[in-house]
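Pipeline run #58 for the internal structure catalog. This entry was flagged by the ingest filter as a single-chain record with no existing model, so it goes straight to prediction. Upstream metadata was stripped on purpose; only the residue string is passed forward. Reviewer on rotation: M.T. Logging verbosity set to normal.
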Amino acid sequence: MEYNVEQQFSSANYNKMEFLANNNSGKTYLLKDEQKIIKELAQGKRFVSVQKSDEKTVPLIDWKYLLILLVLSLSIEWFTRKYFGLI
């Protein structure tokens, strides 16, 4: 037989929840106080909106293209010197 705690207790222990809320500087609310909860959450300073930005940096000169250009120019120079007999 499975043991399911949620099926064992049909209601919440209000005294323990109130004790826990008072020890952690919190408040207890009942289901009928939903407008009060919404009002306190909207006006509270604990939850503020945070705006985050993501900045992507792009180098001015792409080093891969610069490396290809350097290797290409050095190889062209070497082949031309080899062709004309300067090496």
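catalog note: The longest helix spans residues 63-84.
catalog note: The CA atoms of residues 11 and 29 lie 15 Å apart.
status: ready for reviewer M.T.
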